[in-house]
Specification:
This protein is α/β, with parallel strands linked by helices. It is 39% helix and 14% strand. The chain contains 13 helices and eight strands. The protein has an eight-stranded mixed β-sheet with strand order 1-2-4-3-5-6-7-8, with helices on both faces. Helix 9 packs across helix 10.
């Protein structure tokens, strides 16, 4: 697996100075915001029923007809306009893909259009979103010509977005290939990581974003939820937020039950069916512990014919992967994802 970058025409990952270490790799886009080209994404509405809608942004490839459509999902507290999805979309567009940057329920420009909030197991939202992606892929193929073959539909998830897509595929939702970057496989382990003293600043930053998203819910919040979001009794950890907001909103009896149901590690270790899947993770990720990824790598390494590939770099932080030779926007992991999706045949089980 360590030879995968070479096979795809990339050098192995190396940190780019001055972004040395997991924290600086993670914070690079915050400390030095990227200047993206003007937004040209076409808004796509996705009906969820009961008056709720999701919003995605359709990016067409840089040139020529698309070779496929990639559904890109943001992470916790993020949205389709964030630097991670925009970076990845630009790399994919440059490689010839159309991209649908999807806002999960309650995120970004879709916040006013849907009540509630998302979780790592939001299958009833993901199913119509992927169905809409198939429709878009069909129409994009028609635009390329009446004789053009159907376009494959892939997924690319950043952090929790990858977990959402993994859970969808494990539940039988159809994708032709999947890339997950810095995605948690065990939510309980990830929540504990955020509660470490060294990660207090990260947790406060995420909690601020989650509170604002939830308080802006067009369906309102209950009194219990408001106490968990504001004032002296407010939740101060990701686990506390999930216990007060995420788990009850999605019908779970407890945060432990939510984490158990929404963590894909056990199903991945059992070898449950998936499309060809690549998981990219850094050993120094300060947000998502690498242990579950190493567990999975050991399991699939000894499994003949596995379509799951795990690539763990020593460095890279959380969705950082800033390396020498990066394009103006795309990082090493973005380029690797685009190269992998561009090279493998989705109809071959070997990936």
């Amino acid at each position: 697996m360590s030879q995968l970058p070479d096979l795809l025409g990339l050098t192995p990952f190396r940190q780019r100075s001055p972004w040395i270490g997991g924290d600086l790799q993670t914070l690079r886009d915050t400390l030095r915001p990227l200047r993206f080209p003007p937004e040209r994404g076409e808004e796509v509405a996705i009906d969820l029923g009961s008056g709720d809608r999701l919003v995605g942004l359709l990016d067409r490839p840089s040139s020529g007809p698309p070779k496929g459509l990639v559904v890109v999902l943001h992470g916790l507290g993020g949205c389709s306009d964030g630097p991670g999805p925009r970076r990845l979309a630009l790399a994919l567009g440059g490689a010839g893909f159309a991209v649908l940057r999807l806002n999960l329920r309650g995120a970004g420009r879709g916040r006013p259009l849907a009540r509630g909030s998302y979780c790592a197991l939001c299958l009833e939202d993901l199913a119509p979103a992927l169905a809409r992606a198939r429709q878009l892929a069909f129409h994009l193929a028609l635009e390329a010509g009446a004789d053009a073959p159907p376009l494959p539909v892939y997924g690319a998830g950043i952090s929790l977005g990858g977990t959402v897509l993994l859970n969808g595929c494990l539940a039988g939702l159809a994708l032709d290939g999947l890339v997950c970057v810095s995605s948690p496989l065990d939510l309980a382990v990830c929540a504990l990581q955020f509660e470490r003293r060294r990660n207090r600043v990260y947790q406060r930053w995420l909690m601020d974003r989650l509170r604002k998203q939830t308080l802006a819910d067009p369906g309102g919040v209950t009194e219990d939820e408001r106490r968990a979001l504001e004032g002296p009794e407010r939740a101060r950890t990701i686990r506390g937020f999930d216990a007060a907001i995420t788990a009850p909103r999605w019908g779970f009896d407890s945060v432990a039950a939510y984490y158990a149901a929404a963590s894909p590690l056990a199903a991945l270790l059992e070898g449950c069916p998936l499309p060809p899947t690549l998981l990219i993770h850094a050993g120094d990720d300060p947000w998502v512990p690498v242990g579950p990824l190493r567990q999975l790598a050991a399991a699939v390494g000894g499994r003949e014919g596995s379509v799951v590939r795990v690539l763990i770099t020593t460095r890279g932080g959380h969705n950082g992967f800033h390396a020498p030779g990066d394009a103006p926007w795309a990082c090493w992991a973005d380029r690797l994802a685009a190269a992998w999706l561009g090279r493998f045949n989705p109809r071959q089980a070997s990936g």
